[in-house]
Amino acid sequence: MTTRVLFVCTANSARSIMAEAILRQLGGADFVAESAGTEPAQPDERALAALEKLGFTTSGLRSSRLAEFDGQQFDYIISLCDRTRHECQSRFASQNFLAWDFADPVAGNTLELFDRTALQLKERIEMFLRVLSHASDRGHLFDRPQSFFKIMADPLRLQMISLLAQHGELCVCDLVEATGMSQPKVSRHLAQLRDYGLLIDRKTARWVHYRINPALPDWMRHVINTVNDYNLNYQTAR
């Protein structure tokens, strides 16, 4: 089944155009990627150059008005700035809406910012694709709120999620020390949280470091932050 994704931004000239091109190439035939703007301009030549530096095709890219996609159904609507998140979240309330906030390289007006934004979008989209690839018969975390709350109901998982919300990134040894649980038990639960798409990891030498997946929908991040703010028992320092 083909997954349809629409990236939205204000001008549809840089961030959303780059995201469209990146997902088209990385997702292949399994994905249909589109992009649109609430106030579309023209594709920024610096954005196109940044894509080409990373090996992405730019042919056929154009700035589109969001109204062109009225009535169409997408599996995911992804906003790339706060402005479009506020403008579009209610508009697409019946569809899966994700908010990714990327600084506007046009405002910075340097080639380095366009290169950096393209690279960051590539990394985020690769992460998004990895999360989707872990979808199973249990239902994908993004699509089924009950799966998310079932995960949060486990005391150890909830404590580790809260610790990661506080500190940003922790290694397995940090979480073992903070929770008082055995390393195998902590690692097993962390692997499950990663497979659900709630966490991402990176390896350095013999340690694995975890952090909350930045691609989570706003409402999930809000639940995590609320739990963290009002449950002092989970606020254990390193």
Description:
It contains ten helices and seven strands. It has a four-stranded parallel β-sheet with strand order 2-1-3-4. It has a three-stranded antiparallel β-sheet with strand order 5-7-6. The chain is globular. Helix 1 links the parallel strand 1 (3-9) and strand 2. It has two domains: 3-133, 3-Layer(aba) Sandwich (Rossmann fold); 145-234, Winged helix-like DNA-binding domain superfamily/Winged helix DNA-binding domain (Arc Repressor Mutant, subunit A, Orthogonal Bundle), CATH 1.10.10.10. Helices cover 47% and strands 15% of the residues. The N and C termini lie far apart (44 Å). This is ArsR family transcriptional regulator. Residues 137-238 form the HTH arsR-type domain.
In short:
This protein is of the alpha/beta class. Helices cover 47% and strands 15% of the residues. Strand 6 and strand 7 form a beta hairpin.
Index terms:
alpha/beta; Rossmann fold; four-stranded parallel β-sheet; 47% helix; Arc Repressor Mutant, subunit A; 10 helices; 238 residues; three-stranded antiparallel β-sheet; 2 domains; 15% strand
